[in-house]
Design goal:
single chain, 14-stranded mixed beta sheet, 438 residues, 10 helices, Immunoglobulin-like, alpha+beta, heme
Length: 438
């Protein structure tokens, strides 16, 4: 393979940390001195919490009674991935050539202030997945262009599969019932996007909490503890007061996501949590929509003076990967509708800003990814205690539960490779042992 290196954080390193962010923490200078933990991520298909607890699953009754997934599946993650990915009851829409597993290398350390993580994995494609859906001018107006592989626009209509690579981790300090046993499956349900019982948008919008309060039109991750019935049905939400009480008691899963298009170009990851829904932490996240709802057109375009172009075309998405993101105040100008736009010109759907990211949503200020020779290396810095009520606390001497996931090859929603729940121990022997460094 031709040696290629995409350092998408060059702009973040040159400009981002000086634009209102804290001084960069010092990650370990020599990662080779730290042990490597090999984690097998496997393709789960439509294996939801409801499926895990059902008679269709051989261990359904045991799971419903609280048995840990790894009691039966200690070393067979790769075998599970191979059995599911090609099609069958858990995979009604197999993707040709999709890898059954991703081998994730994890290294971990901490000092008195921060957790340091280093992740490495090989991508399925011979290029980094840094592209994302765009707004495309069709000669009369602007329309969405590109979609993830499981979207009907791709598998049914033959549209282009475009989506960013993503690395996610979910943390629980011990307050989420059964998370240590069943991990992220507590947040995965039949009603979610690309799952068997996905409700229509109108039904979700009419829901008194998800639609009328949260303003959502689809169902995303939620914890079983936020529902009032035994099946954790999406509609059976507990009262807002009950959910608020669960959050105060830290009964949520801390969810952090590094995104190759929507966060990496400014050296960050987003920060959220899962309880009644998959929600962003309080504050301003690193990316926002590049769409003017009233004018029905983008808000921003590329600054041609700085970039040499105002837009891109389909055949330029990968080749111009390093300059593919709109970064507010760095390579953007307000969208000009009076220019002579021609069919096929495109601008990204989102705009990024490190400077404007704020609050708990901006706690992951130092997450840097580099793609080289087919492999992503992501170095992640996370404060042990952010001081925020919507984040997990990582105390030295403690053990938490972590689940890891990678979205690869232009896909999102359930189309990820996932881990079983793992222990993360700070100065404690665990599946991933976090050693203290000076």
């Amino acid at each position: 393979m031709t040696r290629r290196r995409y350092s998408l954080t060059a702009l973040a390193l040159a400009l981002g940390f000086a634009a209102g962010g804290p001084a960069a923490a010092q990650a370990p200078a020599d990662w080779s001195e730290l042990p490597v933990h090999e984690v097998t991520l496997f393709w789960p298909g439509q294996a939801s919490l409801q499926w895990l607890r059902s008679d269709e699953h051989a261990g359904g009754a045991q799971v419903a009674a609280g048995m840990a997934c790894r009691t039966c599946h200690k070393d067979d993650a790769a075998e599970l991935g191979r059995s599911i990915v090609g099609g069958g009851p858990l995979e009604p829409r197999p993707i040709e050539g999709k890898k059954p597993v991703i081998d994730l290398r994890v290294q971990a350390a901490h000092d008195d202030e921060n957790l340091y993580l280093r992740f490495q994995w090989a991508t399925q494609n011979p290029y980094p997945g840094v592209a994302h859906p765009h707004w495309r001018f069709d000669g009369e107006g602007w329309e969405r262009w590109g979609a993830p592989r499981l979207h009907p626009d791709v598998w049914q209509e033959g549209g282009p599969a475009i989506y960013e690579d993503r690395l996610s981790m979910m943390l629980d300090g011990g307050s989420v019932p059964a998370f240590a046993e069943q991990g992220c499956w507590l947040s995965c349900h039949n009603s979610m996007r690309d799952m068997p019982d996905e409700p229509n948008a109108d039904k979700v919008k009419a829901h008194p909490l998800l639609g009328e309060v949260l303003g959502k039109s689809d169902v995303r991750k939620y914890l079983a503890a936020s529902r009032a019935d035994e099946d954790a049905n999406w509609e059976a939400t507990k009262t807002p007061e009950e959910i608020a009480g669960i959050k105060v008691d830290r009964g949520f899963a801390d969810l952090m996501q590094w995104r190759a298009h929507r966060s990496n170009p400014v050296g960050m990851a987003d920060d959220g949590y899962v309880l009644e829904y998959r929600l962003s932490d309080a504050g301003q996240p690193v990316f926002t929509s590049n769409w003017d709802k009233d004018a029905k057109r983008p808000k921003y375009m590329f600054d041609a003076v700085k970039t040499g172009y105002r837009s891109r075309r389909a055949d330029e998405i990968v080749e111009r990967a390093e300059a593919g993101a709109l970064i507010l105040g760095e390579n953007t100008v307000p969208f000009d509708p009076d220019l002579d736009w021609t069919e096929g010109e495109m601008v990204p759907q989102y705009v990024l800003s490190r400077a404007q990211a704020s609050g708990s949503a901006a706690d992951n200020m130092e997450v840097l990814g580099t793609w080289e020779d087919g492999t992503w290396t992501v170095v992640w810095v996370r404060p042990l205690d952010t001081g925020e009520p919507d984040d997990a606390v990582l105390d030295p001497g403690s053990t938490l539960t972590v689940t890891l996931a990678v979205h690869d090859d232009n896909i999102t929603t359930r189309g990820h490779h996932v881990s079983f729940p793992l222990t993360l121990g700070l100065d404690v022997e665990a599946d991933i042992t976090v050693r203290k460094v000076d």
